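Entry 14. Structure prediction run on the chain below.
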Amino acid sequence: MNQPTAQNMAQPDLQSFYKTYQHWIVCLSASLFFMYEFAQLMMFNSLGSAITSEFGLSASQLGNLSSQSLYGNVLLLPFAGIILDRFSTRQVILINMSLCVLFTYIFSVSENYTLACISRFMSGATGAFCLLSANLLASRWFPSRQLGMITGLIVMSAFIGAYFAQTPLNYIVENYGWRAGVVITFYIGLVLTLWMSLTIQDTPEENNQTSSSNNSLDDQPLPILESVKQALLSKHTWLCGVYTSLTNIFIVVLGSTWGSPYLQKVHSLTPIDATSVTGLIFIGGIVGFPIFGILSDKLNSRKIPMIVGALASLTLAIVLALSSDLSITTLKILFFCMGFTTSSQGLSYPSIMESTSPKLIATCSSIASVMIRRMKSQRL
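Output returned:
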């Protein structure tokens, strides 16, 4: 009689583990694209001085170079939602992640300002799909009562990427140069792309079986013009977009390009100390996004945590704006708390998903994201 071997016993256990946690693996793997893209957006706090010196840029030229990724985002976002509502989310993620990694490498070897701008623009254009695709998968794999938690974790992953783009990347830039820092992010992107290709799936298997056996007209996407019309007429989508734009202003301005120069100029910090302070915005967000998501799920309300977070972040921003002689410890506390309180913005996305037809989730989310990205580019 054949006895089961350790290898045969381990294989079913592994398969059982994967099936049990597949919804987590799929959605968190998709969030890696958002993490990677956000690191690209926020890296100019670390790269700015070195790139300015090498290319001989003015402050306005540096701001323009930094903003190219946002310009690409804004240009493609109106179409990203339409595409995601009609094509395989997995394929869209893998194609755009691969292109983002490619243009990251091109940026690392750019020898002139024009090529650097083009590569940043194209990288940002591919990133138009990152948050929308992860949220779309979350709406398929998780019930509504858990959407706050999973979307909080998705946005938290972006802040992990943003934190890497601060002190860790700045250390690499200071010791090995900005090109080495960007090349390292390129190799990280290759690894993440391979992992996502192995783990991401469009829908749970039971959903695939149901849709294949019941392929009615109700399952078909709306005509493009009709879906755009309904999304534009959604008052809730506009309100969520405006809310996230306004709560996001200080995070973008201080965390992306101008936070480090501001702290060096106004508070006389060294470049390393300045990025260690700005990095705490993202540590605060890493802590805050899942907490706000879980809290809103428990309260069965997105509105109350969103209001509390916005008021608290506004208070902290006023304190920072009116102070010019704060110690580095106080600055770290302020930046951490600002990142924590503004993480209430992550609740906009489950709020949109819960109030929108499944056929319009990506399109409505893209409308809100256009407003958010547009305001970011103006601030940069």
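Residues 6-42 form the longest helix (37 residues).
Filed with the rest of this week's runs.
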